[in-house]
Amino acid sequence: MSKGEIVAGCLAPHPPHLVYAENPEQNEPTAEGGWEQLRWGYERLRESLADVEYDTIVLLSPHWQTYIGTHFLGLPKFKSLSVDPVFPNLFRYHYDLDIDVDLARQIHDKAADAGLAVKMMENPDFRVDYGTITTGHMFNPQWDKPLVVLSSNRSRDYYSVEVMQEMMMELGRVTREAILASGKKVVVLASNSLSHRHFTTESAIPEDMSKEHITSHAMHLWDMRMIEYFRTGQSQRILDEMPEFTEQAIAESDGGGLSWLLSTLDIPNYPGILHGYGTIIGTGNAIVEWPERNHKEASE
Amino acid sequence: MSDGKLVGSYIVPVHPHTVLAADQNEGWGRLRDAFGEAAQRIKDSDADLLIIYSTTWPSIIGHQIIADPNPEWVMVDNDFHDLGSIPYSFNIDEEFAHAWNQANENRGLKSRTVAYHGFPIDVGSVVALKLLNPDNAIPAVIVSSNVYANRAETTVLAKACMDVVKATGRKAVAVTAMSLSNRMFTKPIDPKDDKIHSLKDDEWNRKILEFLGEGRLEDVGQLSRTIHRQIRVNKVVAFKPMWWLSGMNQNRNNLTGEVLAYEAIHGAGGAVVHLDPAASGAGDKEYDEDDVEYFLGERNVLDAQSDETETVSDPVSAKPANSNGPALWEPTVSKDSVNSSAAPKPVGAYPHARRVGDLLYLSGVGPRQPGTNSIPGGPIHDADGQPLDYDIKAQTHAVVQNITRILEEAGGSINDVLDVTSFLVDMDRDFKGYNEVWAETLGKVGPTRTTLAIRALPTPIAVEMKVIAKAPAKK
Ligand SMILES: [Fe+2]
Known about the structure:
The complex is a heterodimer of chains A (300) and B (475).
Chain A: E1 5-11, H1 17-22, H2 36-48, E2 56-66, E3 70-73, E4 77-83, E5 92-98, H3 101-113, E6 118-121, H4 130-139, E7 147-153, H5 155-158, H6 161-182, E8 185-190, H7 217-231, H8 235-248, H9 257-264, E9 273-280, E10 283-291, H10 292-299
Parallel strand pairs in A: 1-8, 2-7, 2-8, 3-6
Antiparallel strand pairs in A: 1-10, 4-5, 9-10
Helix pairs in contact in A: 3-6, 6-9, 7-8
Chain B: E1 5-12, H1 17-20, H2 26-44, E2 49-59, E3 63-66, E4 72-75, E5 86-89, H3 94-106, E6 111-114, H4 123-132, E7 140-146, H5 151-167, E8 171-177, H6 199-213, H7 217-222, H8 224-231, H9 241-248, E9 256-265, E10 268-276, E11 337-338, E12 353-356, E13 359-362, H10 392-409, E14 417-424, H11 427-440, H12 442-445, E15 448-453, E16 463-470
Parallel strand pairs in B: 1-8, 2-7, 2-8, 3-6, 14-15
Antiparallel strand pairs in B: 1-10, 4-5, 9-10, 11-12, 12-13, 13-16, 14-16
């Protein structure tokens, strides 16, 4: 078997507003657009990877929250209706997604060997969370690639950002190992926002962009600091500052996705491509791609 | 219709083990039996409404209330999916849900109803309704826990709920779906090995249950933050349910409590507790946090300007309010003036109150809310002068609240009020509601009163009061 490969890693946020604004046929509510900066960002990300071949998408969403380790969707197909419990007015999506159970199990097994608590999710009635579906849809609206879906182990809530990050670094390491050993070409997606302080009101027309802005200047400064690190290949600094960032920006990196992604990419020291940045009900969201081709250049 | 009331309160655990695996562990079985006992008691109480506050349904945009008359789906737990699935089909009181939603707005809360096919009812609510209301005989409502809500907001949520319970003559049961300590084992365990995660968690749980057994609900409510720090994993939803449940019970501390079961569920503390409204011997509160009637938090984050707190006290710096009403002024300042940032801004150059000798003279006080300038119960007309429906009781409550704030700023309290002149813009429509709120509030203080009908007030409000009060002793 040929060696597996991570063809790209991306930060790919999942506020359901993005799917809502796209008006895909799978989603029940309809919108008059909105959040274009981010939707164009996703468009650029899709274009950037249009000619890149890959087999599977591996994705970690903070909205499948587990306290007993990391769980993996473990059946070949999930088909149902996903209604966002927080924004049900925006997101009621009929999904039909395929799972790469083999790769899921390979990562699961390697993680178990490394001493992490893991579990395969094999209940056919389980509903896939809206974070997974939003990122899945925005990244690949055709849904023509199978996914590996990891839950968000809430070790940050349980212990601390530091402990969460340690566990996610380990999970990232085994994810990488399993992918390389699988012989598959894979895209890895961390599905999370940056600063994550929401407005607690919603305007009458949710997509009224005259109401959209970052919740505070401090949040903006943190987002820009992180983006600067993304764009200049300073992943180690991101990891170093993760506790302060996560606490002070109430960042959605608390779910572990970003730490896991950077670890899976072997802590990239080459620049990521910023495809877009925008706020969604006050939270900061960036779409960033770390392409494998840059990795190759960086290591030459 | 006779006045509605709460006929009982229950605290129940959230995890699916009691529904799906009660036979796998004796403790889970005892919790299941306690659920059964609670269900029987609810039936015997002739309750006609179950109100669930669930900690496993977080919300961001205010509070959400299920209003789908018959939500149906299959629930699978995020962590415990291997225990199986719980199909559900519930009987929801749609009308009550809408009325509660309105009552929330009347008290200054953000709120919305949810009635979408396939909406995922959370595990805590599913377990509670499955086991407390197995045949769906009693209609239910379910409310979320707002991630950002503080004690004031959560308390007011309960009061708004009770407004509707009373107004609709219901015999309601309040239920909080929650863990005590919520620290679970982070690895799978053999069911027979289940126990409370740590001795510390166990000791705190027992202390909480001792209080609840004595009916000291408000004391537990006021310990919420401490309990959260001590024995709670820092999830998005803090230990808020005791605030809500205490609010549902008039913040009482002398209920009759009984712990029906206390056991571990995968390490977390699960208890079934019954709190009966019958007064017990207990009663004195050891803690003394404020009571609160209306939510005044800043919620207008979408409009940047309205968030600003004014600090200038120059009477000529009048700044336009929203288009529905006159410009707002900073209260004027003089030697004897009393002004409060917790009271609404004046609509002209005058102070909130003035002290003369032993007396305090208050400028006319309306229901406008400080900071937001919103009117509880709604304005009486829109910016174009078109009449709107409004709630006189909510407005009157807000007036009393504003008077209280000004008197407290002066160092006194509502009990100092001596004489009140009330102005109503519609005597026929509003006297009754105004008079009811009066009886519940100032009527208990006992000032003299004169009520007049007038053509209009400067802002779109229906009631204003002119107050003379005893001045508190000067320090
Ligand atoms: Fe999210």
